[in-house]
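user: Please supply your own:

assistant:
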Amino acid sequence: MVANKSFLDAVKDRRSIYQLNKEAPKSDKEIVEIVNQIVQHVPSSFNSQSTRVVVLLNEEHEKFWELAKEVLKPQVPEDQYKSGTEPKLNGFKAAYGSILFFEDPQPVEDLRKAFPLYAHHFGDWSEHTSAMHQFAAWTALEAEGFGANLQHYNPIVDQKIQNEWNVPQEWKLRAQLVFGGRAGEAGEKQFKPLEERVFVHGAKN
């Protein structure tokens, strides 16, 4: 962790960085180990462990964003594609890697059958599980010196990329975390008053 950064400092510093480059502050082996630790230890509802991740580095990362362009180009008006969509996708491609977050529906269905009283909640809880993995990975990478931003090109790209990397078709793509060296900083962020968001009862000191 950069300069022994505390967890709360890492949380504070985790921002959306869109100007990214290929100057990775950690090796591929170290990146994979970070992801392994996240997947191993981030909690899930009823210990479902339903999150699946695909880590794309170097040329495989670039391939993902080229495939995204292939899918999106026919669906976006040409002028809009040229002026907005293509430059944005090229910006993601310029980064070092992407982490694809999937949810495997089978553990969720197993829990629905095992705990019918809560069956209608397990879909939501699966989303919570995925979100925790996304946040943990984003924060961990930031703490190690990377910049990152979270994208959601699902479900438009799902079938194309699942075919490319032999991902089971029943898995549901939930998000794509793009990361790399920092070539810029995050913009100013506005915060609503904590008094409108946090309510404490019973505190004594």
Q: What stands out?
A: The helical segments are 7-13, 28-41, 59-72, 78-93, 105-114, 122-143, 158-164. The longest strand covers residues 172-182. The chain has seven helices and five strands. The longest helix spans residues 122-143.
